Q: What sequence folds into this?
């Protein structure tokens, strides 16, 4: 019917470009045949196949054709639009064409990589191209809208990634909110003794940065705090942060720690979280000596006052006139507006209780690597002495690599840092105790600056390297020499012989995995997670710190396992991306917004309640009321468009005609026209 | 010479013809202005008379009703040949109308139902209509009952549509006037305003800005507040999806709109769009609960395609 | 002193056989083997095997099926599935062993001195005929076919069992043995 | 691999279902991208139309697809609570629940129309859903159109002359 | 407690060397108000040997058992006490659902035999039934006799907890230990609880089989166990029958009762002694006598 929608534009001149992507596409899809088909489609003036469309010459091809053939529509059949839509829009713009007259067809991720059958893959590619040609005919030139970027940044997580990102931004003069859930910043790195491969002291390099955060005028640091609500969009996020009470006021405390001394508990008797239960603390305690802020915290789960209300409150007394201790403190909610967010929430280590064959939690002398980090730490529970839970000093130690990693039953990925930290622990243990150290590895992975040299050094030190994955740890003695020891049964795969190796101490090199609450955070910020649960970057190579939520960046191990240098590098990159966003001041919005045909709208109000951004309102009061969409608020989901019962709302880039043309194009071969 | 016009009816109830009569005295000037050469319901003209006319000699043919039989098809083809303009009058001709609901069933089932199963039928031999019948050596012939109901436009080219079940006399008069004045719009137009009924609804002001529905009530089940928006009260009203021009007759009668004026100009499929708008405002996010709420719509096809089943996308003739 | 030469020419490898093996039920995943040796470490019998289970996988993966089929390893496997539950790649090594056993018997390359294949075959025949197995007769037949001297040793245990009322010399048989035979025939055709 | 081989065997005896997929840009489309980068092989019968959100899927598109010859329609959106636009997927669900009832009335078997939540990380699930649906639709056979049972009628009708299609309907295959 | 019904598939071993398991299981279930109805005309499951000869035939063999169960009492769970039977039947179900080729062969054979093709039988181990359908708490409440024996090592054996099984987790299972503790039987921490006894190796490669069982017994003794509690007829057989021979070879005296968990449980729940099959035990008869039947003349029971 002629009155439905737009008229088919006349004088359409389409150029179709089919990419080989080297062999990625061309090895499966017959790209020549696809181009051939395109040449025969109505409106197509030129159709080519080319090795790499995204390369400079490839883009130049498009620019040249626009000039030579007066093209006014472009279809590029290559990879996912998530990868190169921008590239080809730019190419078109450089050729003098409105960038929105370009449409991409995904014949790599959706075709050549998933359908090995050449004939059927080619058939599918042809149909998708035909659909795109039909669709692009309906495209119209569009202008981009701009949104302004609020200059403040939120950094979630106060480990080394968050600290580095926050400092970078703050040093550039930006206001940063740093939110940390624990009572102190520092993260996992604060727990380490030495860092590989240089063996410099973790505390020595981290502590100054922690203090710098505390002191920086541009950084607002909230510890014991969690993000509980996020609204808004890139440039204008509104974030709600809940600050759980510390019960000691940071603004009043001088850090004298007299309160801890004065606690009615004369001896520390509760497992110390920071030392992973290897030592004890009081109900009021400082998480660790270098904690930032240097303010004690009260744990209501163990404090008598909170449990029974009948404490003498000697801590309050000790604090005296300062009155920093506030047992009545309640959670406080902060609301901030920021333009961008950096997620640096880190990782958790694999819980080896999930692998009972390794005896963790069953045999006291089986340790996780993180526990050993505390054990060898000079400021740790034993002052750096390696003493077992039973008080003995180990004479032989087995370090099992890949615990929970590279395992389809648990975490299929390689955690990347375990080989190196196992070497480091082997070195430290050997150095401190002189014990025989056995490393059980599947593959030794030392790809980093100075890493292989470190491995070489360990070999020279006489540490045993046995290539084989330990099948089980037990205290089952088959031989008198094994009595009282933990026995590791393993095939030494280089010998091809099964060995039993008795040791005094077993160290489980536990892998890194996503934090158990990564899922909740992911929902809050509307970012995606990869299959294993780490935050998903926008592109693994080309956009490694961006996410699919614009303005939200990731840094550190929340994105995937990595070591400290990589974490810091990534945090710097995330900070730089955030800076780039802020300094641009505003960004272009995809012009895929919905709009109302005011003359046709009957103000039925179906759409109003559907918009999650309250972008739709009824205007026109007494005269002729109709709906109106505020393009600055519209994010382009198209829900109202689909709902409008009289077809009076439309959407740029996703017009009914475009989508229907695409459907028809896909199926054109079926119904015979 | 006065322009010649013809009226014809196909599968319809006759209501559209009534609408012509409902013009009352206003019909007189029309009769003054045109010469009616064919109008089976009112005048005794034969098919041969029409056949005898030269092709294109009629200024317009006003055809109501959907197409179900061979006779209907032959007649509309004939009229198409003779007429310069063809008007699809009423919902049946435009969209298929109530008779179009027969498309939910196949032909055999319908014949079986009507001639055998209905309790009031006495038909021990189970005789069903067939095209040819011989009776005492005489060959009798009946029009063929096609397999489905089609809209007029699915059989012949239609120039204008007058929507409604039936179209209002005012719309009819207006169409004739435009024909005489030569002020008809572009061919293919629907001769009614191109916005939804809500625009002209007397209860427009009572519509809440945020329209949500938690249950569906049917008009016979509850009292209908005559002042408030039907949807806001939970009555399934198709006003938001239906083309205006009817004068909100049903609403004035305190009944919800059932969609006889069909879709607005930008909608490809009335039922799908009406369903989409309605389902979107149901206040639930839970599949089970949604199923429950939608039980309040016992017959979705009959509700959303009450007047338009034959014009469902994909049922239409691919007209080029 | 005699020396043995061990050298594998690439022409001895048969990748097609490996492909065939991959399509056998339970054998899909061995391609993913990391050669970590967990299977051997977990296996209580690996210390008696000529090749550890890991090495068997390495052999079949490289297509050296003659070594894999003629080794003792597959006949020492007691089907305890320890390897399968410990394998970080989810390879069902026990099921792979079964496939190798079948193939070894089919090609008649199993080691001749071992009674294990004999037991399997005798068991198979007995159940094929009667639908059930009778422990006494099974052990007797196996011993007679492989190592009659073992009977001397077995007699002592047998006597103890008999005294405890645990040894029955009755042959067990199901009522509808013919139904079972029909089923085997149908299954062969349904292949 | 095995599954795929079976598909091929099936395809030799003719019918390859054609399924139109409406995938949301942020979850299911990305899941399909992930399936690609992970080289997961699946049945090539689904053609994807990208929409920003499953909430953009107008029931008209679904009818249009069936009308133009699709044998099945698959809508893919983010999991409940995960929508990039907060609640678009719920809007899709509302329409889906009612639309599938309507389609049943119009003679579309339930297996031909599905709404699935597939997140960006679920490449494997995408493959499973597609393979399963393709098999399901394959088993149902080609879609013959709304309210149209031409095969059934032809079989039922004895009198040849009466069952002939009217002349103008030659293009009304659906 | 409501009477629950189960189909019962004893398997070949429980007809021969494992007869004590058969007797005590029936009695134990009776004590708990669980009814066992023996599957009619059941056949051998194929055990470990069949798969080594003909995989298709192996599946047909166990599929017949499943189909009989489906035919005789649809919807009723099938209890398979022998670990090998349990694993093989479950593996067959898995294979049928996973591999179309096997499914078509199995279905062809079932059709030919007039047996149901659609099989929805749940195959379960007695320990699984006791744990899930009755529960350790309920069992604790029904204890009638106070255990006066020594500490035991709970030996799960391998196949019941392996990939196709659901009796307990495959590595370091605990349910048998907890069940024993529920009836006040002290257990030792036995780290070899799932280490294979060698199965039929004692009959084929005798020395190896013997060594495996020697290790199991020795470690149990080292842990301070005075008896071993088992849940598989083959494990019980291997550990029980060859103790004499081991003593001859190693000079280390072994005389450990190797009990079925159903015997211990049944006794604690107050079962009649004659019905626990204690007379079928070979090793450690003195202890068995002292623990189970102290006050009465030995001859009557042992």
A:
């Amino acid at each position: 019917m002629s009155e439905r929608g737009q008229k088919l534009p006349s004088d359409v001149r389409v150029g179709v470009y089919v990419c080989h992507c080297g062999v990625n596409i061309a090895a499966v899809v017959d790209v020549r045949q696809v181009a051939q088909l395109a040449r025969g489609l109505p409106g197509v003036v030129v159709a080519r196949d080319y090795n790499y469309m995204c390369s400079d010459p490839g883009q130049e091809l498009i620019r040249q054709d626009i000039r030579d053939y007066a093209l006014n529509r472009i279809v590029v059949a290559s990879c996912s639009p998530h990868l190169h839509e921008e590239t080809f829009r730019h190419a078109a713009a450089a050729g003098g064409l409105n960038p929105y007259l370009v449409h991409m067809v995904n014949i790599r991720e959706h075709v050549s990589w998933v359908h090995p059958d050449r004939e059927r893959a080619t058939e599918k590619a042809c149909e998708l191209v035909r659909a795109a040609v039909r669709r692009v005919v309906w495209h119209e030139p569009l202008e981009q809208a701009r949104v302004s970027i609020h200059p403040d940044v939120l950094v979630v997580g106060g480990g080394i990634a968050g600290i580095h990102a926050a400092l970078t931004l703050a040093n550039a003069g930006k206001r940063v909110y740093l939110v940390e859930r624990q009572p102190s910043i520092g993260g996992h790195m604060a727990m380490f003794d030495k860092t590989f491969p240089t063996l410099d002291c973790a505390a020595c390099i981290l502590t100054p940065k922690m203090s710098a955060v505390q002191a920086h005028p541009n950084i607002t640091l909230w510890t014991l705090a969690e993000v509980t609500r996020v609204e808004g969009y890139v440039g204008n996020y509104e974030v709600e942060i809940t600050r759980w009470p510390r019960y000691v006021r940071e603004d009043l405390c001088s850090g004298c720690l007299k309160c801890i001394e004065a606690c009615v508990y004369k001896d520390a008797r509760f497992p110390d979280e920071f030392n992973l239960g290897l030592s004890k603390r009081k109900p009021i305690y400082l998480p660790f000596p270098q904690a930032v802020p240097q303010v004690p915290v009260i744990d209501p789960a163990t404090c008598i006052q909170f449990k029974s209300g009948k404490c003498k409150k000697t801590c309050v007394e000790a604090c005296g006139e300062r009155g920093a201790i506030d047992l009545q403190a309640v959670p406080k909610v902060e609301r901030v507006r920021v333009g961008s967010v950096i997620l640096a929430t880190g990782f958790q280590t694999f819980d080896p209780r999930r692998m009972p064959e390794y005896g963790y939690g069953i045999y006291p002398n089986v340790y996780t690597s993180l526990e050993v980090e505390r054990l060898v730490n000079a400021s740790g529970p034993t002052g750096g002495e390696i003493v077992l839970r039973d008080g003995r000093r180990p004479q032989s130690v087995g370090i099992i690599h890949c615990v929970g990693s590279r395992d389809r039953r648990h975490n299929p990925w390689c955690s990347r840092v375990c080989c190196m930290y196992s070497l480091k622990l082997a070195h430290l243990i050997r150095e401190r105790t002189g014990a025989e150290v056995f490393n059980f590895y599947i593959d030794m992975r030392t790809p980093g600056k100075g890493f292989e040299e470190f491995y070489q050094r360990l070999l020279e030190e006489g540490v045993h390297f046995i290539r084989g994955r330990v099948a089980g740890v037990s205290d089952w003695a088959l031989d008198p020499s094994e009595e009282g020891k933990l026995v590791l049964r393993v095939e030494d795969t280089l010998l091809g012989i099964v060995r039993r190796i008795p040791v005094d101490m077993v160290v489980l090199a536990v892998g890194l995995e996503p934090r158990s609450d990564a899922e909740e955070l992911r929902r809050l910020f509307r970012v995606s997670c990869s299959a294993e649960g780490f935050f998903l970057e926008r592109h693994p190579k080309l956009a490694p710190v961006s996410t699919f939520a614009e303005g939200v960046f990731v840094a550190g191990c929340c994105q995937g396992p990595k070591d400290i240098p990589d974490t810091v590098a990534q945090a710097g990159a995330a900070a730089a991306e955030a800076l780039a966003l802020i300094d641009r001041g505003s960004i272009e919005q995809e012009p895929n917004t919905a709009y109302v045909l005011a003359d046709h709208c009957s103000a039925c109000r179906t759409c109003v309640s559907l918009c999650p951004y309250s972008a739709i309102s009824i205007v026109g009061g007494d005269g002729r009321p109709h709906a109106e969409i505020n393009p600055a608020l519209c994010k382009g989901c198209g829900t109202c468009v689909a709902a409008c019962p009289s077809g009076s709302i439309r959407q740029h880039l996703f017009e009914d005609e475009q989508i229907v043309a695409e459907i028809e194009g896909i199926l054109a071969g079926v119904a015979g026209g | 010479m006065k322009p010649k016009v013809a009226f014809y009816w196909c599968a319809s109830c006759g209501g559209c013809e009534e609408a012509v009569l409902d013009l009352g005295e206003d019909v007189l000037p029309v009769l003054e202005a045109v010469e009616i050469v064919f109008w089976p319901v009112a005048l005794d003209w034969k098919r041969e008379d029409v056949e005898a006319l030269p092709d294109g000699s009629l200024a317009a043919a006003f055809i109501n009703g959907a197409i179900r039989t061979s006779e209907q098809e032959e007649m509309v083809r004939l009229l198409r040949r003779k007429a310069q303009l063809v008007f699809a009058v009423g919902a049946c001709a435009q969209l298929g109308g109530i008779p179009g609901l027969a498309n939910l069933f196949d032909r055999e089932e319908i014949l079986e139902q009507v001639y055998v199963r209905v309790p009031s039928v006495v038909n021990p031999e189970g005789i069903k209509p067939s095209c040819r019948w011989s009776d005492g050596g005489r060959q009798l012939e009946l029009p063929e009952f096609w397999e489905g109901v089609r809209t007029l436009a699915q059989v012949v080219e239609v120039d204008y549509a007058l929507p409604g079940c039936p179209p209002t006399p005012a719309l009819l008069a207006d169409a004739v006037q435009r024909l005489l004045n030569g002020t008809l719009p572009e061919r293919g137009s629907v001769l009614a305003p191109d916005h939804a009924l809500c625009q002209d609804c007397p209860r427009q002001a009572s519509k809440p800005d945020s329209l949500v529905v938690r249950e569906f009530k049917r008009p016979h089940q509850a009292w209908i507040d005559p002042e408030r928006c039907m949807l806001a009260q939970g009555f399934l009203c198709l006003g938001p999806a239906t083309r205006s021009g009817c004068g909100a007759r049903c609403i004035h009668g305190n009944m919800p709109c059932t969609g006889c004026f069909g879709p607005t100009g930008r909608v490809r499929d009335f039922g799908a769009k009406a369903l989409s708008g309605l389902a979107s405002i149901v206040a639930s996010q839970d599949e089970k609960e949604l199923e429950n709420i939608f039980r309040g719509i016992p017959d979705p096809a009959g509700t959303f395609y009450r007047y338009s089943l034959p014009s469902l996308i994909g049922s239409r003739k691919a007209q080029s | 002193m005699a020396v043995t030469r061990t050298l594998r020419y690439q022409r001895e490898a048969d990748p097609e056989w490996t492909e065939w093996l991959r399509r056998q039920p339970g054998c899909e995943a061995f391609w993913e083997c990391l050669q970590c040796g967990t299977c051997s470490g977990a296996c209580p019998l690996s210390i008696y095997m000529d090749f550890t289970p890991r090495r068997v996988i390495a052999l079949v993966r490289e297509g050296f099926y003659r070594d894999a089929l003629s080794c003792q390893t597959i006949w020492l496997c007691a089907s305890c599935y320890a390897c399968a539950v410990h394998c970080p790649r989810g390879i069902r090594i026990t099921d792979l062993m079964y496939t190798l056993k079948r193939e070894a018997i089919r090609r008649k390359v199993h080691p001749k001195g071992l009674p294990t294949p004999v037991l399997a075959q005798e068991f198979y025949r007995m159940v094929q005929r009667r639908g059930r197995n009778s422990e006494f007769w099974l052990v007797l037949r196996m011993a007679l076919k492989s190592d009659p001297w073992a009977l001397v040793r077995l007699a002592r245990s047998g006597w103890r069992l008999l005294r405890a009322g645990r040894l029955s010399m009755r042959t067990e048989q199901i009522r509808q043995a013919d139904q079972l035979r029909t089923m085997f025939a149908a299954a062969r055709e349904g292949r | 691999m095995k599954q795929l081989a079976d598909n091929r065997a099936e395809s030799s005896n003719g019918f390859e279902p054609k399924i139109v997929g409406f995938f949301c840009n942020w979850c299911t489309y990305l899941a399909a991208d992930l399936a690609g980068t992970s080289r997961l092989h699946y049945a090539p019968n689904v053609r994807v139309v990208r929409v920003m959100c499953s909430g953009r899927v107008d029931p008209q598109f679904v009818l249009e697809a069936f009308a133009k010859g699709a044998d099945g329609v698959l809508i893919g959106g983010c999991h409940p609570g995960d929508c990039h636009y907060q609640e678009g997927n719920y809007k899709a669900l509302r329409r889906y629940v009612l639309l599938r009832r309507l389609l049943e009335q119009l003679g579309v078997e339930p297996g031909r129309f599905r709404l699935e939540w597939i997140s960006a990380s679920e490449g494997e699930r995408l493959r499973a859903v597609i393979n399963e649906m393709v098999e399901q639709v394959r088993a149902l056979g080609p879609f013959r159109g709304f309210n149209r049972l031409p095969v059934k009628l032809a079989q039922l009708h004895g009198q040849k002359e009466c069952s002939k299609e009217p002349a103008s309907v030659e293009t009304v295959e659906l | 407690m409501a009477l629950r019904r189960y189909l019962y598939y004893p398997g070949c071993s429980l007809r021969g060397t494992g007869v004590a398991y058969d007797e005590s299981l029936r009695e134990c279930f009776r004590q708990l108000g669980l009814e066992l109805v023996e599957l009619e005309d059941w056949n051998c499951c194929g055990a470990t040997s069949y798969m080594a000869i003909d995989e298709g035939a192996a599946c047909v063999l166990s599929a017949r058992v499943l189909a009989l169960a489906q035919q005789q009492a649809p919807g009723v769970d099938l209890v398979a006490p022998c670990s090998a039977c349990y694993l093989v039947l479950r593996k067959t179900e898995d294979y049928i659902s996973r591999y179309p080729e096997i499914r078509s062969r199995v279905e062809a054979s079932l059709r030919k035999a007039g047996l149901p093709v659609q099989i929805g039988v749940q195959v379960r181990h007695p320990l699984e039934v006791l744990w899930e359908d009755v529960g350790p708490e309920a069992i604790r409440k029904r204890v009638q006799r106070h255990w006066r024996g020594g500490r035991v090592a709970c030996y799960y054996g391998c196949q019941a907890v392996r990939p196709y099984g659901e009796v307990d987790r495959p590595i370091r299972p605990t349910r048998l230990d907890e069940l024993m503790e529920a009836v006040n039987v002290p257990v030792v921490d036995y780290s070899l609880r799932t280490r294979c006894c060698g199965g039929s190796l004692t009959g084929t490669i005798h020395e190896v089989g013997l060594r495996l069982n020697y290790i199991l017994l020795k470690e149990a003794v080292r842990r301070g166990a005075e008896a071993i509690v088992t849940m598989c007829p083959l494990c019980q057989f291997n550990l029980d029958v060859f103790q004499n021979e081991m003593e001859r070879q190693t000079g280390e005296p072994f005389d450990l009762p190797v009990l079925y968990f159903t015997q211990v449980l049944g006794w604690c729940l107050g079962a009649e002694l004659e019905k626990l099959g204690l007379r079928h035990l070979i090793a450690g008869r003195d202890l068995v006598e002292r623990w189970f039947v102290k006050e009465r003349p030995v001859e009557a029971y042992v």
About this structure: Residues 1-5 of chain A have pLDDT under 50 and may be disordered. DSSP finds 17 helices and 34 strands in chain A. The longest strand of chain A covers residues 225-233.
